[in-house]
Amino acid sequence: METNMDFDFDAIRPYRDNELHEQIQFLLNEPNFATLLPSFFPGWDVEELKQFLLSLKTIAEFQEKIIHTYLNHITAQTTDGVILNGLENLNPQKGYVVISNHRDIILDSAFLNSNLVGTGIPMTEIAIGDNLLIYDWIRRLVRINRSFIVERNLPIRQQLESSMRLSAYIRDTVARRNQSVWIAQREGRAKDSNDRTQVALLKMFNMSGNDSLIENFKQLNLCPTAISYEYDPCDYLKAKEFQQKRDDAAYKKSQADDLLNMKTGVMGRKGRVRFYFVGNINEEIDRIASAISVKNEQLTAIAELIDKHIHLNYTIYPNNKVAYDELLGVDRFASEYSADERKAFDQYIQGQLQKIDLPNKDEEFLRTKMLEMYANPLINHLKAQEKE
User: What CATH number corresponds to the domain at position 171?
Assistant: First the structure.
């Protein structure tokens, strides 16, 4: 199996061990990064922490001693536990494209990798859009943390070249280096939690393949992964954005909005967090090849297959059942949650709505949008079960 090696990946790939010291030195001379240091290790002397960072020799050390330690703190402070299920479906000797729904800008991939430590399954490389890399020091920091860059908002010709390079990088990483990558199933978060895989993303994967579409995808070991947060701390910000877009078709989030979403997602209450790894779906991709011969229809079928596995493997919380009943005005799941659970969820939603500051605040619309965020995973889960 050949991979396209004609691209220079240096501008988008994660940093290597031999580049770590130089990049840490750069970060320590960046005032905005230096102000963040005390939050990573509360109680540490800043100078001691700087020397500790400079003593690190490998990316793995940086991830385990800095990022993993910090995420343990975030997990303890903002969740009721993060659990990875389905690890038995992964072969630690193989690379996968771990493709998942997308809830939180930072923590989806961060929780995934942090909780792989000690499991015997190597951490993934992480796809991250450059629209989030507002400052050069942020770009450097994420590349230290095993991220590769997805370039966005380019002119059409440059976008095509960038997509081809990205495709080649992912194929080289997974198929030649046997290193897994994580990527969201779509650009940006599904703000209503109605998770769907973008066919355009699958077309990008296929660009670098030299064989049939089906063989190209089998080489990538696609691994659909379901992520379920009991609470989404950004739910009220997403609802607010829905109204802003409803009232102004030209509305676009600012960089300040992105930073607020990132901070709120990291520091806000999340409840229980669950991941489920399906494992590779190559046998089912083979069945698609047997049933469908038209390339575009094969791509659509693969996208629907990924969606089915994600939808089937959500963790369904009482919140989802309450939201379903309230959104649809039914009592289908009333026997599966208590009066206290319903009351607690209603109070939570009301509290989140109170955080929304809009001059023409449409409370009924906003509440409906928030209910949709919690009901849609269950709605899609039920539909996926019906198709089984």
Answer: 3.40.1130
DSSP notation for 284-316: HHHHHHHH---HHHHHHHHHHHHHHHHHHTPPP
Tally of residues, the chain: 388
- R_g of the chain, CA atoms, integer Å: 21
Claim to verify: residue 27 and residue 75 sit in the same structural domain: yes
Element (H, E) at 227: strand 222-229
- Does 298 share its domain with 161? yes
Say whether both 309 and 343 belong to one domain. no
Which range marks the domain in which residue 387 is found? 234-243+261-267+316-388
CA dihedral defined by 7, 8, 13, 18, rounded to 10 degrees?
A: 140
Same domain, 325 and 308: no
Answer whether 23's CB lies under 8 Å from 140's CB: yes
Q: What pLDDT does 43 receive? A: 82
The count of C-alpha atoms lying within 13 angstroms of the C-alpha of 219, restricted to the half-sphere facing its C-beta, is 25
Give residues with Cβ within 8 angstroms of 187, minimum separation 6: 129, 152, 198, 201
Residue 351 has pLDDT above 50, yes or no: yes
User: Does the CA dihedral 14-20-26-28 come out positive or negative?
Assistant: positive
Nearest to 310 by CA among 44, 37, 89, 102: 102
What are the tens digits of pLDDT across the range 126-173?
A: 999 998 898 999 999 999 999 999 999 899 999 999 999 999 999 999
Instruction: Scan for tokens 């992520």, then name that residue.
Output: 227
Distance CA 120, CA 112 (A): 13
Please state the rounded mean pLDDT for residues 320-344.
Answer: 98
Give the Cα separation of 259 and 305 in Å (integer): 33
Distance CA 83, CA 276 (A): 9
Q: What is the pTM of this model?
A: 0.95
Cβ atoms within 10 Å, residue 125? 26
Confidence bin at 5 (pLDDT 50/70/90): low
> Is the CB of residue 112 less than 8 Å from the CB of residue 84?
yes
293 and 377 share one domain: no
Quote the number of domains for the chain.
Answer: 2
User: Given this model, what pLDDT does residue 44 score?
Assistant: 84
Q: Are residues 301 and 328 in the same domain?
A: no
